[in-house]
Amino acid sequence: MGIDDADTIFQVVVNEQDQYSIWFADRALPAGWTADGTTGTKQECLQHIDTVWTDMRPRSVRERVSS
Amino acid sequence: MSQQHELESMTPEEKRALLAQLLDGSAEATPSNLSLEQRRLWMLLQLDETKPWQVSIAVRLDGEISQAAMQQALTSVVQRHEVLRATFREVDGHPLATTVPAVALRLPVIETDDLEKVVANETRTRFDLAKGPLVRASLLRRTGDHVLVLTLHQMVADRRSAKLLADEVLTKYTELVDGTAQDVLATPVDFHSLVTAQRDWVNSDDATKDVDYWRDQLAAIQALELPTDRPRPPLKTIHGSSITVPVPEKLAGCGSEVLLSAYVAVLARYSQQRDFAVGVPVAASWHEDGANLVGPLENMVPLRIEVSESETLERLAAQVGAIHAEALTHSRLSFDRIVEAAQPQRDLSRTPLFQTFFAYDEEAGSHQALDLPTTWTPHDIDLYAVRRDTGLTLRAQYNTDLFDQATIERFLGHVLLLLDEAVASPAKPLAEIPLLTDAEHDQVVVAWNATYAEHDRSATLHELVEKAAANNPSGIAVAAGDTELTYAQLDGRANALAAELVSRGVSTESRVGVLVDRTVHSVVGLLAVLKAGGAYVPLDPSYPADRLAFIVNDAQIEIFVGLRGAVDVLPKEVAGTDRITIPTTDVTADKPESSVDTGDLAYVIYTSGSTGRPKGVAVEHRSIVQSTAARSSLEGSGLPERYLVLAPLTFDAAGGGLYWTLSRGGTVVFPTDSEVLDPRLLGRLIRTRELTHVDGVPSQYAVLLETDLEARDSVRTTVVAGEALPPKLVADHYRVSPDNALYNEYGPTEASVWATVHPVQPSDADLPRVPIGRPVPNAKIYLLDKRYNPVPAGVPGEIYIGGDGVARGYVNRPAMTAERFLPNPFGAGRLYRTGDLARYQADGTIEFLGRADTQVKIRGFRIELSEIENVVLRHPLVAEAVVTVREDQPGVPRLVAYVVPVIGRVLTQETLINHVIGQVPDYMVPSNFVTLEKMPLTRHGKIDTNALPAPQQILASGFVEPANELEAGIAETFASVLGLQHISATADFFSLGGNSLLVARLASQLSRENDIELPIDEVFRVPTVQGIARVVETHQRERSDVDSAALYTQQVAELVADVKLDPSIKPDGLPKANWFSPKHILVTGATGYLGVFIAVELVNRTDATIHCLVRGESPDAAWDRLEETMRKYRAWDESYRDRIKVVTGDLAKPYLGLPKEEFDRYCELFDSVYHSGAIVNFTYPYEAMKAANVLGTEELLRLCTKKTLKAFHLVSSVDVFMGTGAERPFTEEDLGMKPVKIPTGYPRTKWVAEHITVIARDRGIPVTIQRPWMITGHTKTGASHDTDYLYVYLRGFLDLGVLPLYNDVINAVPVDYTAEAIVYTSLREENLGKNFNITNQEPTTMTQCYQWLRTFGYDLNVVDEAEARRQALEVEEDHILYPLTPLLRVASMRHAALDPDLQKAVDPMDECRVLTEALEGSGISCPPVNEQWAHSCFQFLVDNGYLPAPQDVVR
């Protein structure tokens, strides 16, 4: 279940800046991150992130620009 | 009946017959009386006799002890076990055992409480294998009790036997004391029956099956690579120590398999390996009673274990149990046979197959064994789990050359920690068990990351610069070439440009392409973008169009900023983008309205991506502001007053110095392109600008240190980053600039320039690696394993970086960003995953270990290329080195070393191989060394490994014939030992099927045949016919040349004693004379053959007056001698009268024999000195020529360093090689201090004079050393040297009517070319400090000369060389050959170095590369030596009466 093992199951996580990352599915979430509900292999999670993380600006920047 | 008893009754003839049988038979068929285990140990003993292969046991005894009864018990037990009465000796490479009928074993009583001292003494005291007995006993009388200590040699006992013996002795003792003693029973089976049974079995099908089993089981096994505290010695050592820890009561129930599994799991963590072997002991199984027999019967087998960390410890233990059980069914095969079956690559730095051992001992019962101190140990680490009545303990024995005690203590702590966790939570996978104690976890995660430091977290990057500008408006902010910008100018222009950008719509998150170069204007551009609220993307206008287009599109650049010239020529691929020119004149403008937040994007820097497409790293203000603020931690060595920014602005490294300096009000200095390329110009820039700070990549800095030899005293801080810092560079740095602080920095662009820094200490030069230090202020470093768990100190982990410097991510790469920027479970923010490996030292300092994903493996060996590089770099003539793995032939990866020699020096492949061999294991010796003028660099100044050329000479796997008789003989021995037909001279003994047993035989045979002692480890080091031939030659040469090493050492000392130069001869502070357009030149030796032509060449090539130092009664007499000599050599011209003057003096006298005031006048007058003068005589002793040839050189150097500093050109001689037994090629390197042969006479004077000149050079005196080869006739006039010994020979032998037959190479170099080369090279600055060999790249041979003599008309009677010598030695005193008879008496006329076959093997370019390069473009080259030339030389000699005309020779 290493970080590079093909069969390790990850979950897609997001922080308060709307930045995406991956985290081990069987571990508690680090502070400041929430799960977006997707789990799968690293490849599957990263593919999901590629489709959902369309605006890579941090939330604070996005909000400041639009205000 | 054992074989031994038969031997004793054999006649000498019978013994010889048996020996012949022993020597010729295969190993299995050998009727040796040693067991296989004994033979293996015998082999090891031959490798190193100093190792204490013995085993001790100590047993505590209560109460009164009868010494007599103990002695009696001991004697009867030793008598009972035949093997304890054995002795061993070697007969023709084979060990033979002899058993004596009885052994008298003493039992000394020692009154002491110091058991440790007794045991240490036992370990030091060696057994005499040939004499025996191989068992010792002593009785310690301590306060309150006794201790019986038994020590046995491992040829006769193992650990198990020692306990057995102690048990038997004590049982017998009790019987004797109780009066119940019975007659001693014979052992149920004797040792030699077991040996016979073993030998029978070895030939059985069962044995074959076991061989197959182990071959399969151990296929491609890899060595366990535990991270060591010190570099692993290339030859394994056994220095050891041990630590014992009690196993807590709650874990005492763990069985042997669980303990072994916990051990293996921790080893896997430390090594980052999942698949390796651990050795375990196996009891003797040859006879049911074998277990009760004393003897070396214990075998070892490797347990190959694959550790899956997703399993629980329980599961692993079950697997280990199964593997162990299976191994036991194949454990009759002795360990050496298992090694042979598995054929691992030989590696003298490690034990084969396994490097760690585990044993579980139950010692509950009759006697109380005591723990003994360990002073040696066979493996890297061995773990003994010992269960006694008092409880379970773990004892780790470890090699003290590899590990510190603290490391092993930590290691044992980790084993117990893992056991504790696994026992408490049996369902937990191993991977879930952290190896850190809570305290260690806190230390690495928290304490070593306590980097919090205050700085203005609300500031933006440009505000840092604006603040400095407000404080110091007239200070110089940026300088490049002749252009300088003050802070006011920089800020004003940037404001104006920013306003323009805002007006064009640039705002938060806009990306602006800035076309950067090394002008001050680029900084205006960067700053303007920041002020406008956008993010800059620095781009090099010379990028290929498609790369530019890709970035423009990827970063969504809509507007470009640059100098007019650059924006105008942007390629059409980026059409459609807006373009603005950076103002290059002063404009005053207010800062435009823009609101910038610290979370906004500051810049995007593109780096090369592994996928081949560049990727943009997006960095926010807060990150680069943190990175810049953290620089204050380097200000102990001074503020960045004037900082040299060497990296291009497209590279994030440039940002480090740029913003540090601009935020502190200092001056950023950009070098010009030519200054970047030429380190000497760069050095000049540093001096003229008085720069205080310099940064760069280590390889760049190394070039600067090497080529710019003047001091750079203004520099107080030097920062290197970007690649590993070689320890040698540390030494070089502190040697030339001890007061200049050196920092080794580490950090990827993704962590905003830097993440760690190490203030480098001079002592770091001695480390295997220079650390990268600790995290910089507000940065965090986590070293994590594959499970994302922190690793403890000493264990490698991948570097993850946290803190404020972590970048936002990769532009337009959500997946890649998510993959590399991960949640931080230890604190806030994200961690950047670097892909770099590192480990903590015990104090938290971080050591960089390389890339996690580019680990190199060749033939199954993990190789640290940097390790080899560091070894190569230790050669004093190596300036830079890179080692890579090439696969030019598919499937055949090879290590290739690329080397840049120190300027002006030459290095041969052989020199380098000899240097590396012995410092690293054989598999790490590069197969090729390629010498380069300079390393190819990428645009960022890193070494461009892709551009390194393929080595031309590929060591083909083809067949190489033995080159000479010696090699042929060795090849034959290889063939007979291996049972093969033909052996290539380059084939590896082990890859041909050689093994440890065969190598012992090979060494023994080769030793006999060549009458030398060939150590076995030499065969391991160079296991080819060629390699061994070299070893044999070396040994033979050593023996024939000097009576002993001591004599040689003494002779070297005598030789070197004359290598000294008066300390007052030094260049310090002297004005430089006119070296390259001299007005007055001194030439010595102008009445000699070469000297004449040097003087003439100087007349023709310079405008100088040539002053010739000539001996003479009066100036007129001196002049006459000079003119006469010049006329004789057809070199005279009347016009020379105005150009040449004589100085009447004598080289052999102080101040050249000149009056003091005249000497002083010349000190002011001369610009340079050509020292060609010497007494040349091949029969005089050294002392007779020393005054002129050696002391004369010193006097001239004195002249060179008085009043002015003059250039000194020493004319040396090829005899510095010929007279010292040097091996060809004779390169243009400096001479070594230890010649193979101690030179005598003339060559000795030249050797010493060269070394003196080198001292002068190293003190800073401008010199060249010119080594003419065999100087021969002038190409235009045939003018030849009549007293050259070759012509003397010729004339003498012609007179005798015979010519000796020998075909030496004649490296004839025409005198005119020799003089031209000397004069041309000496007048060019770049040649100062160099050595030149003036050779002919197309030499001729003696045979060819004879042919020319025949065509000239001589009727030659060529006879055997010995016959010619015999006749020559009989000549009368008035014969021309007579003075040469002392030489002819002691030596052949042949010279080993002039062998024509050797000539073919030498690349002539290797002997004159420096000269050839120096003459490039000069039009000067060595003319061909041909018949026409030879005839003109002979004619000259005939005309001058030195040779008889052909028609006058009467036979």
Describe the structure.
The complex is a heterodimer of chains A (67) and B (1451). Chain A has one domain: Structural Genomics, Unknown Function 30-nov-00 1gh9 Mol_id (Rubredoxin-like, Alpha-Beta Complex). In chain A, 28% of the residues lie in helices and 28% in strands. Chain A has 2 helices and 3 strands, in the order βββαα. Chain A has a 3-stranded antiparallel beta sheet, covered by helices on one side. Chain B is an alpha/beta fold and 1451 residues long. Chain B has 47 helices and 52 strands. The longest helix of chain B is centred in the N-terminal third of the chain and has 20 residues, at 159-178. Chain B is flat and about 120 Å long. Mean pLDDT of chain B is 85; it is low at 1-8, 17-31 and 953-957. Chain B: InterPro entries: AA_adenyl_dom, ACP-like_sf, AMP-bd_C, AMP-bd_C_sf, AMP-binding_CS, AMP-dep_synth/lig_dom, CAT-like_dom_sf, Condensation_dom. Chain B: This is Amino acid adenylation domain-containing protein.
What's the gist of this structure?
Chain A has helices at about 40-50, 60-65, and strands at about 10-15, 20-25, 35-40. Chain A is of the alpha+beta class and about 70 residues long. Chain A has a 3-stranded antiparallel sheet, with helices on one face.
